[in-house]
Amino acid sequence: MHDESEVAVLRYGHRPGRDDRMTTHVGLTARALGADRVIFPDNASQSEETVEDITGRFGGQFAVERTAALDGTISEWEGVIVHLTMYGERIQDVEAEVRRAHRDEPVLVVVGGEKVPFEVYEAADWNVGVTNQPHSEVAGLAVFLDRLFEGRELEQEWPDADRRVLPQASGKRVVDADAFGDGDDPGGTDADGGANDVTE
Amino acid sequence: MHDESEVAVLRYGHRPGRDDRMTTHVGLTARALGADRVIFPDNASQSEETVEDITGRFGGQFAVERTAALDGTISEWEGVIVHLTMYGERIQDVEAEVRRAHRDEPVLVVVGGEKVPFEVYEAADWNVGVTNQPHSEVAGLAVFLDRLFEGRELEQEWPDADRRVLPQASGKRVVDADAFGDGDDPGGTDADGGANDVTE
After folding, report:
1. Structural domain ending residue among the three candidates A155, A170, A185
2. Low complexity compositional bias: what residue ranges (chains A, B) (predicted)?
3. Which of A117, A187, B103, B159 counts the highest number of beta carbons within 10 A?
């Protein structure tokens, strides 16, 4: 996030078709909740396209990359590495340390897809569990980022957006970014979906 | 969560096959992050099965239900209703009010799947956006619950578990719940997956 050390999210593993939606959600969650960049496996081109499309329309400096070298990304990372896993230390026990490290150093957040090899556990500075219960890597990433940034990510601005959603007590309000602030509603109510999921 | 007003999560809409994994993740996230109950649409029997299976193995009082009456569940709810949507008010602006309401009343959290009809926006006491950016209903639910409970959900106990994951700085440690505390590791390292996602 602007003026802070970089936070990048590495999606470790992806099965095309089966994982498309989960991988896309990892990328969109990374973007919405303050990460600077997501790195997908080489075979996740469809997720890359969706996240790039959303960034183009809704703005922000977020970068999407793909790599054939997941392990290389980890071993060559210049900064600290957090691996999110239900087997890890409790987030409430280590989050302050991670926040401290992030003041000075880039953070790579590894989010597992298929089985994660033991080497990733070893390479991580912290293996972190958002609960030690099985649930969702997207949920784990969301809570981790919200706690890492202590809510600052919710105050982000989104430069270069084509459209903006204006918070409403009821209903939907989407405006062209140019018209922002002058009461026009050229975007109408045709924005995507009702929930935060636009990957339908 | 124990000794507090009930929190139930209603998954509004489900397309069998296509949405199975997302709906399952909504249910598992609800369970792991302190909700008491998830209500799925009638056609989400596979997600119901998975969440029940996880609850059987990993414990807790969590309930899973299905209903053919999504709208009826909303209109007959005795308590307050929060609808999570990227079009809603900013969570940081309304979360204190919602927490205050939850001290006295049950909370129904509506999580959209397919397009959510306008009536749901109207029926909700709060339409809440975890950012006004498109991302993931699972991520939105996770951040909402973590903020609703202010982290208390991470200290939950899980009665009647068959197995427990013990937090580790590195590697995996799973024990039979009976052996909890005595150093045995009969579960070995065969627990599910590397990330929090066990719905592979």
Report:
1. A155
2. 188-200
3. A187
B27 is in an annotated binding site: no
pLDDT, mean of residues A109-135? 95
Same domain, B81 and B178: no
Q: What is the pLDDT of residues B150-197, one digit of tens each?
A: 999 999 999 999 999 999 999 999 999 865 544 444 444 434 444 566
Residue B115: pLDDT band with limits 50, 70, 90: confident
Q: Is residue B15 part of a domain?
A: yes
Chain A partners within 8 Å of B87 (Cβ): 165, 167-168, 171-174, 191, 194
Residue of B14, B91, B136 to mutate when probing chain A, most A C-beta within 10 A? B136
Q: How far apart are the C-alpha atoms of A163 and A184, rounded to whole Å?
A: 12
Instruction: Compute the average pLDDT of residues A60-71.
Output: 97
What is the predicted pLDDT for the residue at A196?
63
Q: What is the pLDDT of residues A27-41, one digit of tens each?
A: 999 999 999 999 999
Question: Cβ of B116 and A195 within 8 Å?
Answer: yes
B85 touches chain A (CB under 8 A): yes
CB environment B47-83: b (16+ within 10 A), e (fewer): bbebbeebbeebbbebbbebeeebeebbeebebbbbb
Question: Hey, CA dihedral for B135, B140, B142, B147, is it positive or negative?
Answer: positive
**Per-residue pLDDT, B193:** 42
Are B89 and B169 in a shared domain? no
What's the CA dihedral at A190, A193, A194, A195 to 10 degrees? -140
Determine contact: B198 vs chain A, CB below 8 A.
yes
Residue range A145-158: mean pLDDT, rounded: 97
Q: Which residue in B38, B11, B151, B45 sits closest to B95, CA to CA?
A: B151
Question: Which domain range does residue B56 map to?
Answer: 7-155
Task: Say yes or no: B173 and B137 in one domain.
Answer: no
Cβ atoms < 10 Å from Cβ of B101: 17
Do residues B26 and B84 both lie within one domain? yes
pLDDT for the residue B114:
74
Strand partners of residue B84: B111, B128
Q: Is residue B199 part of a domain?
A: no
Q: Report yes or no on B200 lying in a domain.
A: no
pLDDT in the model for residue A191: 41
Give the chain A residue nearest B112 (alpha carbons): A195
